[in-house]
Fold:
Amino acid sequence: EASVSGNPPITIGDGELTSTGAESPFYHLWGGKKSQYLIRASELTAAGFTAGNIDILSFEVTSVGTVPFTDFNLSIGSTASTELTTTLLTGLQPVYTDAAYLPVVGENAINFVTPFMWDGTSNIVIEFCWSNNNSGSSSNSAHVKYDNTTFNSTSYIQKDNQLASALCALTTGATTATTRPQFTLGQVPCVSERVAVVADITEPPAITASVSPNDTICDGEEITLNVTSGNANYEYTWTYDSQIYSGASFTDSPSTSTQYIINANDPISGCVNLDTINVTVYPSPSISVSANPLSITCGESVQLDATGFGYIPTIIVSENFNGTTHSFTAINNSTGGTPADAAWTLRPDGYYYSYTTFHSNDNSQFIMSNSDDQGSGGTTNTELISPEFSTVGLDSLVLDFYHYFRSGDT
Structure:
């Protein structure tokens, strides 16, 4: 589907005057009214309009009655006439109907059921027609903003006690005037017919990444990374630890746990694929040896000692709440009482509240949520959430924390 944007809405006339009589298409002194309004092409182009589909018309109403306008019809058409006469124009295109149309005070917009194609050069005529098939009452009129023009821009027929079908068919004996309601016109974008487009999606050939001898090694050991595929056209690029290697296979000796990303690109078909390998690296054990004494004579003995330690755990999240701020996210969704008093708050060791002295496990500053301080009628709902952390390359986790809960006197 292809579309071309339409023109922005344009307004014809300044709307400097307010109707009190037949200047309005909804003047109800008579039982029904058929009105035609001419807008010259020069006015449309001066306002910035270009050829295209007109699909909306609006006008400003200043006052309304309580009676709707029966069998309301809105039509529009092109004409070479530069002024309207006592004979109304025919052959207009109906664009909207309403069995009982009742305007409202303010801007009234009518969306056309069928857009009207303006050729960009012709004058256009807008026709309003309705009939309540009675003798009318001016108190039921709807009045609009309008302007004076320098030419006969209006022509209308008013009749009592006629069906809309009969009134709207009349063309002769009209009254002309040099007044015209202020109109705003809008255009719909031009849209082509939709054409189906078939997209063939090809799954990229699979790749298999592997590491040997193992994906868990000790610091100093060497690994071989390899990728295979049934697609001979793939070109491979490994990305790891801010480094890049091109090729299907290579060796490495990582000193820390590392993620290897393999990108496969087929320059002929354009297909791409990727895979990842995570390698866990344990630090090498540390050992220290000593002898006492360092020097002996033949036949004497010496004390030999060896000490060492193996894998040192990696701390990925740690918070002791001993600073002026902390890294956790504190949430307080408490309700009732004074909710702010239940918020997580840093407290010094030995904090005293309601005949109770509070201490942390290491006698240092701690963080506390105090439901009792929220007051009577409160419901405490607080959360303390750690920062996000990654467990990539780890084979086990240990959680160590201190928590104290006090309810009432227990």
Summary: The CA atoms of residues 92 and 242 lie 73 Å apart. The helical segments are 41-46, 164-167, 371-374. The chain has a mean pLDDT of 90. DSSP finds three helices and 31 strands in the chain.
